[in-house]
Amino acid sequence: MSHDLLSQIDLPADLRRFRESELLQIAQELRGFIIDAVAAKEGHLGASLGVVELTIALHYVFDTPNDLLVWDVGHQAYGHKILTGRRDVFDTNRELNGISGFPKRAESEYDTFGVGHSSTAISAALGMAMASQLKGEKHKHIAIVGDASIASGMAFEALNHAGVSGADLLVILNDNAIGIDPAVGALKDYLTKTKSGKETGRDNIFESLNFDYSGPIDGHDLPKLIAEFQRQSGLSGPRLLHVRTVKGKGLKQAEQDQVRYHAPGKFDKITGDIPAKDESQLPPKFQDVFGHTLVELSQQNEKIVGITPAMPTGSSMKIMMDAFPKRAFDVGIAEQHAVTLAAGMATQGVVPFCNIYSTFLQRAYDQVIHDVALQKLPVIFCLDRAGLVGQDGATHHGAFDLAYLNCIPDLIIAAPMDVVELRHMMYTSQLGLPLPIAIRYPRGRGHIVQWQLPFEKIELGTSRLLSQGNRIAVLSIGSIGLMVQELIQQEQLDITHIDMRFLKPVDETQVLRVLENHDHVITIEDGTILGGLGSMVGNLAFAKANKPLPQLHVLGIPDSFIEHGPTADLHQLAGIDRGALLQLIQSL
Ligand SMILES: Cc1ncc(C[n+]2csc(CCOP(=O)(O)OP(=O)(O)O)c2C)c(N)n1
Ligand SMILES: CC(=O)[C@@H](O)[C@H](O)COP(=O)(O)O
Ligand SMILES: [Mg+2]
């Protein structure tokens, strides 16, 4: 694909020098550029393809960066990045030391707000608009938000406030009628029918909230978009422009299979096909073991239900939704609601498995404390994508869960080392616990091919002694223990290794025994170093262990935000990889 015009655009000012009639070709070239880049380097595809025309029209009409664009989530902002100074480095997208897959303030003045988690754009753009008012400055403030993201509570809070703010805020609702998975909820149906009050004589929902509503308009029709943005640039006050687009636009397969092509991995840039892979001999992913195990358990226990906030495919809750459509619920991008919904169900004796990515549970922290733990409601949280997740980077790493959950009373915290332990923990959880439990596990594959072993009950708060040495002991929690175990076997190290399994209740007897019988105790976790296993063992040592204490070495994610890149590289950067552990052991 040629980039004759695109190659002349380094910044939006260059784009604005083109005639409107040339924008169609620029759109084709930009689309081709995105397809070529993602086919080779992976990343988010469908969302960016769907907003090519929108992106061009926005930068063509508005005076960016003086006018402020805020992209919600930011997975659709590849076109924006390419038009705002990052075309030549776009091949480093999501790579270690490369550009981020999401808008990021440190990266460009055109990235007005850091994103990754959804539904923040309206609040952020409103904040900017109110700041402009306060400072007496003239800017346009534009939030671009998807149909699934606008259904989240936070977006509604922002609309509610913006409607009485008088702020110069344009919300562009990019309605493609899908999130990652098919859109859900009543708002989805409403949006497919909604029309302007000017047409119907009755206010629609946005007009009722004091927004000047326009649309819906075709988001692939460049002349229409440009005319509408020119009109909008002369207006002020809260406005909402409803734009309809097609996710994956311009690549046949991506339009037809929008779920798969949200982030398809590598594919053929000419045909659009994803190469078939035989994965039958590979160990399964943690998430698939979660999904299949939940179905197995649901067959035995009719009280079980599944809840996911908008991640059925990613979390594999889809397996349960297919097997038991009446007992598994996708509630949309609504983590807070998902948690309290699960709490409500638990009050009635239902056994909810509430599956949330570790990073997204951050949004429902109060609900975990106030609605679940404080009432000792036995909700079973399955926290997927715990630890460092790789190319999505700092916004998405599940780095904090061990620490932020550890300080909550009456919450059991478990982390399986392998998929078989995950099964046993899920089995144990639904037998009837007196408290809620959070089971956290990582993105990707385990190492056990034959995972479908009979269920076993695990005693809460018990660890597993995996090898016994004398001077040095390693206490690990979660899947990072696999690396420890392999290291010990491959290097034939004479050291003790304990898979802690539970951060809370922690196996105090075992920890004290280890502290008293070794010269050096190493803790290792794929979570922040502050407040997780290392802190727990340190506290125990000072409070309860007989003196003299061994030397304690705490390995975990350092107290800084870890960027994006291959997970193995990030583990190395964080000092929690095989090399770092071996070096430490050798130095002792
Ligand atoms: C708080 C939060 N929950 C879940 C996600 C995962 N997520 C990323 S994109 C997405 C779907 C967004 O759909 P929509 O807003 O309609 O945008 P589209 O992809 O259709 O352009 C979801 C659920 C997230 N980024 N943030
Ligand atoms: C943009 C976003 O938040 C999701 O698309 C996320 O990238 C999904 O991550 P997984 O690929 O780990 O499911
Ligand atoms: Mg959408």
From TrEMBL:
InterPro entries tied to this protein: Dxylulose-5-P_synthase (IPR005477), THDP-binding (IPR029061), Transketo_C/PFOR_II (IPR009014), Transketolase-like_Pyr-bd (IPR005475), Transketolase_BS (IPR020826), Transketolase_C (IPR033248)
Subunit details: Homodimer.
Any single Pfam family the record assigns to this protein: Transket_pyr
Reaction catalyzed: D-glyceraldehyde 3-phosphate + pyruvate + H(+) = 1-deoxy-D-xylulose 5-phosphate + CO2
Segments forming domain Transketolase-like pyrimidine-binding: 284-449
Protein name, per record: 1-deoxy-D-xylulose-5-phosphate synthase
Top-level taxonomy: Bacteria, Pseudomonadati, Bacteroidota, Flavobacteriia, Flavobacteriales
Cofactor(s) it depends on: Mg(2+); thiamine diphosphate
Name of the gene: dxs
Organism of derivation: Nonlabens marinus S1-08
SMART domains: Transket_pyr
Binding site for thiamine diphosphate: 75, 116-118, 148-149, 176, 335
Record keywords, A-Z: Isoprene biosynthesis, Magnesium, Metal-binding, Thiamine biosynthesis, Thiamine pyrophosphate, Transferase
Matching PROSITE patterns: TRANSKETOLASE_2
Example GO BP: terpenoid biosynthetic process
